[in-house]
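Think of the structure tokens as a kind of shorthand, similar to the way a musician reads notation: each symbol stands for something richer, in this case the local conformation of the backbone. In the example below we present two proteins back to back. Begin with the first one, reading the sequence and then the tokens, and try to describe in your own words what changes along the chain.
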Amino acid sequence: MRAVMSRSPAIASDSDRQFGNADSFAMAFDTAWRLQASQPEAQALDRTERLERILAQLADHPFAQKDAATAREVGEFRLRLHGV
């Protein structure tokens, strides 16, 4: 499996390695969502706007590059899972 160094330190997790699979994307998505939630300007955005910003931040993730439509579905699933 190919690992890629994270390009966005703001969404880096415990490991800087990202893999081209849904699990890796979900972990990066959750981290980015939590970081965004702590920013005052993000609190003024609705769910859709916040989702679009996160997907844009993660556009260089190997999974998002490989399958952007499924990456969006993973993001939507994560939000439903967390009750957002």
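Once you have a description of the first chain, move to the second and do the same.
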Amino acid sequence: MLGLGAVQCISLAGGLLVAALLVSSGAPVLIAAAVLLGVGTFVFGRWHGRALHDWLPVVTAWSLLRVRGKHHWTARVPLLAESGAAGRASLPPFLAGLEILEASSAWTRRQRLGSVG
């Protein structure tokens, strides 16, 4: 419908339904207009070059992590192990199974590069 996605269509339909129910129940028209303005902003608005409805999953996931207290990740970085060899830093759970590797390269100003493998 006019190039709108499913989230946009459902949001507009829900906003129209809520506004119609508000007016039918005797609420002031200004409240219904505020609902339609809010839904219109959510559907057609942009923030940082991205549609507002695209931010919904990002903000929801971040808010849930913040409520649970898991929005920070810290790791103890070992400087030297007991045997004198360099230790490995622990990685967050979503990077499980990856290793941080170091490689030499003559074509960079810094002679050592880090990579994930």
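Compare your description with these statements about the second chain. The mean pLDDT is 80.
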